[in-house]
Amino acid sequence: MARNLTALIVDPNLDSRLEVVKILEEVGLDSAGESAYGVEATYLAAERRPNIILLALEDPPMRGLSTAESLVQHAPDTPILVYSSSPSPMLMRQAMRAGARDFLEKPLHVRELRTAVHSVLASEEQRQLARWAEQSVAQARGTVITVAGAKGGTGKTTIAANLAVAIRQVTGQEVAIVDGDAQFGDVAVMMTLDVRRSVADLAREETEINRLTIQPYLARHDSGVMALTAASEPDDWRALQANHVVDIAQALAETHEWVVMDTPGTMNEVVAASLNEAAIVLLVSSLDVSSIKDTKTALRILESWAVSPERVRLIVNDITRAAAVTPEDVERATGKEIASLIAHDAQVGLSVQTGIPIVQSNPRSRFAREILALSESIAGLTEERQSGFSLARLPLLGKSF
Ligand SMILES: Nc1ncnc2c1ncn2[C@@H]1O[C@H](COP(=O)(O)OP(=O)(O)OP(=O)(O)O)[C@@H](O)[C@H]1O
Ligand SMILES: [Mg+2]
User: Fold this and answer.
1) Whose CA is nearest to atom 5 of ligand 1?
2) Is residue 50 over pLDDT 90?
3) What pTM was estimated for this model as a whole?
């Protein structure tokens, strides 16, 4: 048998309460309890979770209003319907301000009360549906991966472009790449993309960046990765500000499971915004002494920007056997475990020249295999993280070198 809806009656006047109880049944409501104003009412609302609260309000209304406010605070999902024998406009306004959803005049009539209860419950249901929809959009947010580094030329863009394609290959999910190096960005060159509209055009032309307005600015790579490329005009990059980067990351994460953001080799406000939006930061360093020193500084900067260390994964790229510094030296100097070591691979240069990501043109090459391993680990990592896995427990990747 279907359960009736329940109502809690909050009314300090015993006779009036009895009157309301009497007509409840005719309205099709069960009583969830009765109380006067004050803590008892809040306690009953929180404990019995009625579908609706019927609250009496008479002049002077102070105690009734403060009870209504406290009910809204403790049982925010339970709508309050106020009734009064002297419904002045002033009292109505005060009741609505305190959180009441409707206001009825006494004596209560069955039909009127039934209509009011149903309309209040229907609008409460709408409100909750809208809230759930909002929450599920927020929960469905894709993972933003920002590729950064303290120095130019450490392989950030090569890694970002190949990682985007590799994640697409490994997961088959929607992937976007953003060239956040608005001045010298070369994602479009590395992926042979047709640049019609750039990230700077988007920043300049759209007053609101969202998942709809961003669409015309995305170029499709033949792997299926969608790219927002850098400006081709030399001075255009100034248009891109930190707030744009935040909006871009959020808009793309609503429609793509993965958003890879490439950044320039300097730490500025725009990079800070990309780092803040990231669930995973790949900090790319090389094995030369100045890069290690700068990586150490970058780790400190990231910490001061409130990018928590467990989000940051250190990648050491372009490793040659001849390097004077070892990966262990890097870990010792930076105090950070290396998450991935990527070897020097002569094939990379060729791939950059031809504009075909090496994970496509030569998937068996060493660089491609290491990027594929990294993308598999990131994809698996995110799944496990969603079930409470800790980033810190991930084993070192690709330490075969
Ligand atoms: N593992 C590697 N083996 C061989 N060459 C590499 C490797 N990684 C990167 N390179 C080469 O290094 C050069 C610089 O790489 P890339 O442009 O990706 O660096 P970047 O960090 O994005 O530079 P910038 O800071 O200027 O944007 C490229 O020509 C690329 O071919
Ligand atoms: Mg670059």
Assistant:
1) 348
2) yes
3) 0.67
